[in-house]
Amino acid sequence: MDPKKILVIDDDIDLVEIIRINLENAGYSVIDAQSGENGRKLAINQQPDLILLDVMMDTIDEGFHTAYELRKDEKTKNIPIVMLTAVTQQTGFQFDKVGDEDFLPVDEFIEKPINPKKLIDVVRSHLTPTA
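The structure corresponding to this sequence follows.
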């Protein structure tokens, strides 16, 4: 069985490599993009099992716009999205798991700096089928 494929969309290449090492050590395959637009295209073409998406890239809210676009596309609308955010550190505004899909269409938030164990636990929770 092929390993589950995780798409990491983040412009911080050092962080992407840290995430890659942790995910690959846990048995996942990792692909990455450094912008929302490139990540969206890669998601459509590669059909990852889960997307890790940064909020702030070229713009302070690029991740939100990317999440909206991913949810509107038939090919990517059902892929779980976990948003990586330093927004709380930057603005003091805190995000949490949101029930309103129209407001923030993501499945979960992970605060930066990322705890590797929490990252793996969250990824597993979204990729493990529920009985």
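The chain has one domain: 5-127.
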